[in-house]
Amino acid sequence: MADKPMMKIAITPPVPIVDEHEYVVAILEDGWDYVHLRHPSATTHDMRRLIEAIPQRLHNRLKLHGHFELLNEFNLGGIHLNSRCPEAPRLYSGKISRTCHAIDEAERFGDMEYVTLSPIFDSISKPGYTSAFSSDQLSAMKCRNAVALGGVTPSRIDAVNRYPFIGYAVLGYLFNSGSIDEFRQRLKEFKQTL
């Protein structure tokens, strides 16, 4: 649907994985636009250590889902608002994105860099979290800054392209891969959809 390449975003699982910085670096070096660091239970110290383990040249492509105090320490790509952290810090003027679970909600946030709309397909990372939208609803969507989230796999990119999404976000398909080798193979599968 878009004239330019779709935005590609990876979202880390809520619980950090071993050597997560290696996964984040692999994603960004593969050309993905952003990686969202989503660790609601992590301490600020743990988040700081994760960011420090990622080369500084990639920091501007990291978005935080919390721990916004780290914005003062690193040149990050922005913040992502959600039900846990619904407001940007006072005086923050960087890039902002937001989680949305309804089309009318997504349409209210047209001033954001983008919004993630979910679940578009049945979720991989949250069993039982099923697709919330019909094909007709997605086709009629007026929101022009929405990113598809929920059950996105390489085989579903063509379906995402049928709707007015500017990109897609992936969590379960990448991070439930089991090994770094399988993870790299799954990254390669997304590249083959271009």
From TrEMBL:
Thiamine phosphate synthase/TenI domain boundaries: 18-170
Residue runs in coiled coils: none
SUPFAM superfamilies associated with the record: Thiamin phosphate synthase (SSF51391)
GO biological-process terms attached to the record: thiamine biosynthetic process
Database matches in Pfam families: TMP-TENI
Protein name: Thiamine phosphate synthase
Origin species: Muribaculum gordoncarteri
Lineage: Bacteria, Pseudomonadati, Bacteroidota, Bacteroidia, Bacteroidales
